[in-house]
Amino acid sequence: MSTDCIFCKIIQKEIQAKVLYETESILTFYDLNPQAPIHFLVIPKKHIASLNETSPEDVAVLGEILTTIPKLARELGIADSGYRVIQNNGKQAGQTVAHIHFHVLGGRGLKWPPG
Known about the structure:
By secondary structure, the protein is of the alpha+beta class. The chain contains two helices and five strands, in the order αβββαββ. The chain has a five-stranded antiparallel beta sheet, with helices on one face.
């Protein structure tokens, strides 16, 4: 855990979040500034600053994240209509929190290109 990371503080329950789903390894919660009718984040509980910081030991947690996303999309009713998964990596890509996270957006038509 990182003591100055907002997501680590959410994991530690120091900051409240509207939790959608949680396991021993991951936490999923709704975005505080949603960009679509459904917008949630999926994060590993292990502090990993960015995709660049992943290692072979992170394969299991990343796999859990990627299999949890469609499960939650089905439960929230956006799997069939479509949803977008975004993982920003670095400042120029829009990463504002140095803890790897995946945005999932759905519930409306999404434009392309996104940025």
